Amino acid sequence: MAKLLSCVLGPRLYKIYRERDSERAPSGVPETPTSVTTPPSSSWDTYYQPRALEKHADSILALASVFWSISYYSSPFAFFYLYRKGYLSLSKVVPFSHYAGTLLLLLAGVACLRGIGRWTNPQYRQFITILEATHRNHSAENKRQLANYNFDFKSWPVDFHWEEPSSRKESRGGPSRQGVALLRPEPLHRGTADTLLNQVKKLPCQITSYLVAHTLGRRMLYPGSVYLLQKALMPMLLQGQARLVEECNGRRAKLLACDGNEIDTMFVDRRGTAEPQGQKLVICCEGNAGFYEVGCISTPLEAGYSVLGWNHPGFAGSTGVPFPQNEANAMDVVVQFAIHRLGFQPQDIIIYAWSIGGFTATWAAMSYPDISAVILDASFDDLVPLALKVMPDSWRGLVTRTVRQHLNLNNAEQLCRYQGPVLLIRRTKDEIITTTVPEDIMSNRGNDLLLKLLQYRYPRVMAEEGLRVVRQWLEASSQLEEASIYSRWEVEEDWCLSVLRSYQAEHGPDFPWSVGEDMSADGRRQLALFLAQKYLHNFEATHCTPLPAPNFQMPWHL
Fold it and tell me: Where is this region: Disordered (predicted)?
């Protein structure tokens, strides 16, 4: 009877992975009393085959879930319509509540029938036995056996806790349950006394900004968090996850962030291969509709690196909602997991981000200054110009206020706090992070990210002459035009390198540098072009084109 109840309340099982010989427990590891013996994989179909009762019951419950999601998103309009028609009176609501209660009882009955169907299936019974054993005893053998199943991630046991590192428990400077530290925007009117009257005047605007950010704004910024989109992408996500596990020996893990969100991760270990880059770990930060199952993780994988992918809060198996604070909290526990559980030193970690993932990548670079390098592909400097692009001009004040208070993705500001090597990849046909049209390459916000970084690191070089020549170089839309501008100013790379190395040897590596202070205008132009070419690479493609492995290169450094 207890097993039947477990089948009724248990998670949905999607797939049974093929078990590889390399995954079998080493002979020197003793079996634990709570471990469960798994039969050879040859006797099982890798795709879980539900019985007819479970299959049909699952279809009914999935349909009910979709209808509930549609009802949730359309509820404001529905309530307004019902109110106008006079259907919200007590005489109308009571019969409706009876209908709703009857429907819930019917759905509960369908769930019980699904549980009976699972109970009659030996595959599901074995799975639920392994899951219960793992929850009782987190032994390595139990986790190894559980990793052979792909199921609803809510039931996956937590593998790593944000407070697990001993340094976190002893340090007062680490994150609290309120979250990690973020850079806060400065007040719009500095020096003005924030009196009670001013606070009352601001209250309607603040309430409006909050409502916009938590309804329309967040879903526009992170469409991947919308349940209906995830439902449509589910077959593709399951296929991508199966490829990572079965072909790349990926290991899935659940991390608990300081805000209570559970983060879905996938780790592919290449340290045992002959490829030297396998000793480096690339942490991938996906875009606003990207998932590690089908995202930018494939590029460093093809290049031979060890890779750690993770999903934004609210994406696929990760819980929560993707606001900047939650994003930073998630990134923090991912980096801690890489260091304290996977055993990588910060100097062996590379942060790679695509598009909106640049926010968490630059936050990690700012917060963990010892990481090896940062690679930002198709990213931007600040969210406000891109948000204004898609909203009406009459909403300019509301949009700016909402972004600054609730959705402040200040990538450039965070990146300037990082002292290590940086590579920016600009898509020459990008249609997403341009503020006009894709053909107008100067409206690509990746240009502004480069300029702000160079102006912070080399303020004397990026004076009037240097800034002007870099803007000319950024206007080039092909390699031929770039080379033409480069040769026009007769850039001597050996001279530029010698100047930079001499300055570093005398003054140290910390930015900002005052190099170029006593230099001619021609010398500053040469240095500015040389640095721009080292910090930014062009890729002739649109925003969503996967980056080929040969284009995944380590950033330049002295």
Answer: 24-43
| Section 142-166 average pLDDT | 92
Chain centroid to Cα 287, Å, comes to 6
DSSP per-residue codes, 260-303: S-EEEEEEE--TTSS-GGGGSEEEEE--TT--TTTSTTHHHHHT
Q: What is the pLDDT of residues 257-276, one digit of tens each?
A: 999 999 999 999 999 888 89
Could you tell me how far CA 214 lies from the centroid of its own chain?
A: 19
Q: Which of 75, 507, 514, 520 is catalytic?
A: 507
267 token code pair: 């780790």
CA gap 241, 451 in Å, rounded: 38
DSSP, collapsed to helix, strand or coil, labels residue 368 as coil
Contacts of 517 (CB under 8 A, 6+ apart): 460
The pTM (predicted TM-score) of the whole model is 0.90
Q: Are 558 and 500 in contact (CB under 8 A)?
A: yes
Closest residue by Cα to residue 423 from 303, 288, 539, 275:
539
- Give dist(CA 196, CA 404) in Å, integer: 22
- What is the distance in angstroms between the CA of the first residue and the CA of the last residue of the chain? 68
Taking the CA of residue 497 as centre, how many other CA atoms within 13 Å lie in the half-sphere pointing to its CB?
8
Q: Which amino acid is at 518?
A: D
Per DSSP (E only), the strands in 361-478 are 373-377, 422-427
* Catalytic-residue membership of 430: yes
Q: What is the pLDDT of residues 17-35, one digit of tens each?
A: 876 544 444 333 333 334 4
Give the number of residues written for the chain.
558
Geometric angle at alpha carbon 442, from 440 and 445, rounded to 5° = 110
Which two three-digit tokens encode residue 128? 């639920």
Annotated catalytic, 355?
yes
Q: How, if at all, do strands 422-427 and 536-539 pair? A: parallel
Tell me the two tokens of residue 79. 């309530």
Q: What is the mean pLDDT of residues 145-161?
A: 95
Establish whether 507 is a catalytic residue: yes
